[in-house]
């Protein structure tokens, strides 16, 4: 892809994911998925130089994969439970308050589809900032009520204020735009649309009523240097385009 060609939808998604770690300081970024991973590396190379990145196993790495240090699993867990991590997970379902499901679709006793399982989602959402990346924004994912709650949403966190004092859902990035919970009742709000996407399209693809401001901005434009880093340094093979599509 030519460095001079306009940003693609996938590249706007990278920018939106990278922004989740702006101002984060020295915390561990745990991106799940191709585009969140590119976004975390882009943030590290530009506006978040103190961000910690991991190879997903036992090492801390630079944005180019150079090993910077050792991260044993016990230390990783200490970062998780101590709030020094910001994960960007996926979601098979997510509702208006940010309750996330990655376990099963349908009745828990007799699910129509078995998924990943609960995994670490409850600990993640109750101990450190959490965001979500959804590459296909649809009513199948953005649902009125999650069939099973894995990641804890704002309504459930409010029921246990003592246990959820570190609960913070930062943003939800999809292939259509950026959503957050900056509303009085912490229900989901449309914070931005990617260029070329209309507010109505986001509404049609969402299975519940979104809070929509009078004016919805577009996801910010990547700088020339950010595009160069994405296209030539971080993802020269163009894996980002396969995750989102044209």
From TrEMBL:
<comment type="similarity">
    <text>Belongs to the 3-oxoacid CoA-transferase subunit B family.</text>
</comment>
<dbReference type="InterPro" id="IPR004165">
    <property type="entry name" value="CoA_trans_fam_I"/>
</dbReference>
<protein>
    <submittedName>
        <fullName>CoA-transferase subunit beta</fullName>
    </submittedName>
</protein>
<dbReference type="Pfam" id="PF01144">
    <property type="entry name" value="CoA_trans"/>
</dbReference>
<dbReference type="InterPro" id="IPR037171">
    <property type="entry name" value="NagB/RpiA_transferase-like"/>
</dbReference>
